[in-house]
Amino acid sequence: MEIVVLGRYGSFPGKDGACSGYFIKTDKSAVLIDCGNGTIGRLQRYCRIEDLDAIVISHLHDDHMGDLRVLRYAIETKQAFGELDHPIKVFMPKNPTVIAEGIYHPDLFDTEYIHEDMVIEIKGLLLRFALMKHSIESYAVSIEEGQKKVVYSADTVYNEELITFSKNANLLINEATFADISSLKAPVPHMDALHAGLVAKRAGVKQLLLTHFWYEESVDRCIEAAKQNFDNVLAADEFKNYTV
Length: 244
Ligand SMILES: [Zn+2]
What we know:
Layout lengths: L1 E6 L13 E5 L4 E4 L5 H5 L10 E3 L5 H4 L2 H13 L7 E5 L4 H6 L6 E5 L5 E4 L2 E7 L7 E7 L2 E5 L7 H6 L5 E5 L17 H11 L3 E5 L7 H8 L6 E3 L5 E3 L1
The site of zinc ion has 7 residues, from helix 2.
């Protein structure tokens, strides 16, 4: 399984960057996990839109789904030109309903709402979900191919459920919006690199990939903070391919 980081920024992109988007590719399948602002243009370096098997949206914040709004124009146009004869499968949370309703276009998106008990099979990939703790409904996603397992934390504060859900993953892609949130003046519904390292350690994962950086945060400082708890840690690089 290959994972290409299309965007690694949280909330809004840093200079020349993009927000959350992870393209998962195997011999048989092509899945986009999150479709944050800036990701659809980048996706096309690796995959034609009409060749996507599914899009999975962890939660309905624009840094994770904003490009769905422009993707619908692409699908509409491709359908008009006969390049695409079906809607694209989208798995996403149902809440907030006002946002979900705003992107409800059954001719363009074949939408299924995520819940914790669902297991999705997409051409040899198994996807599972765990409800996280964020300001809105947000799901961590586990992607398995045979014995290989990748877990994506989505946006969440540190929580025990994520540790259980991530057990023995080959790769944990975990948000690290800041290096250490204890220095912030108000609580935020996010995790820092220090705690991402703790999740990796307690879940016994093989490798930790930090992502969802605040644009002004130092990535080196994030790595340093995560390493206080876990050694095998990398910072997500945009356009870089990670093989599991
Ligand atoms: Zn976010």
